[in-house]
Request: fold
Amino acid sequence: EIVMTQSPATLSVSPGEGATLSCRASQGVSRNLAWYQQKPGQAPRLLLYGASTRATGIPARFSGSGSGTEFTLTISSLQSEDFAVYYCQQYFDWHALTFGGGTKVEIK
Amino acid sequence: QVQLVESGGGLVKPGGSLRLSCAASGFTFSDYSMSWIRQAPGKGLEWVSYISSSSDYTKYADSVNGRLIISRDNAKNSLYLLINGLRAEDTAVYYCARVLGIAPTYFDYWGQGTLVTVSS
Reply:
């Protein structure tokens, strides 16, 4: 299976600052990558798919880039509601969908 | 609006079985593939199963070793997951999620989850 590795595990950011989260695939997944946001006690919410396409209702401050094995989720000017855990997920190998371990974005 | 509501979780002894349900509303259920994803306490997300819109294709994660059966009833707008031979490592919140596309891809709507606890 394709292993997804996210870094860093925890990111401390002040409100209003930007954040850059990384996701690496153990083999190329083209642009078949999604990002999710999960807040405590809630279900994950789809942010991006196709590496860079925002899902319905997702603010423009969330952007994604990358292809192959290296991907980035950028959050410009963090709002209070953006502090959460973020997961990447590959769907290139649809026989075995896999998620990264998550990056927690916390208030600095 | 799209709504997915899971039920059926609870405390089960090792070796037991449990059937989870997911009631869907707000969209044409029979048009969409569905999946189950689980999350152990304090851990990350793990996809476990997929079923196509017409039930003609199912897929499971290798980690569940043939112990899971996914099914659906389009007439009842419902998704199910039967888990047999429950083990401590199956303890998790189980989410049902709608799949976009005709193959297992990504998940655009998720339920709130149902907690399965396996313990003697």
